[in-house]
Amino acid sequence: MGAKGLAGNPLTELLERIAADTPAPGGGPAAAWGCALGAALVGMVSAVELRRQATAAATERAQRAKALRGRALELAELDVVAYTRVL
User: Fold this and answer.
1) Any idea what DSSP says for residue 5?
2) Cis peptide before 29, with omega less than 30 degrees from 0?
3) What is the pLDDT of residue 7?
4) 66 lies in some domain
5) 1 falls within a domain
6) Could you give the 3-state DSSP secondary structure of residue 11?
7) How many angstroms separate the Cα of 1 from the Cα of each of 8, 45, 74, 76?
8) Helices 27-52 and 11-19, interaxial angle, to 10°?
9) Structural domains counted in the chain
10) pTM to 2 decimals?
């Protein structure tokens, strides 16, 4: 893993690692990365809304999406560490 863990790798490398014959990363990190992508899309929509008309709701949604994106990436890393320990 790079200095930033799995999330610091290119998407193509992450996909190759999931497709490999190794047990980790597996379903847990893949689900977390999907969650992070969804949160990034919410962040994008919120940014567009904020550019057009800044509202407290859009600001809060953007902040929550950013926090969720970061937490999902953290959980992906923790899953790999935890699963590797039991192998």
Assistant:
1) B
2) no
3) 83
4) yes
5) no
6) helix
7) 8, 31, 14, 12
8) 150
9) 1
10) 0.85
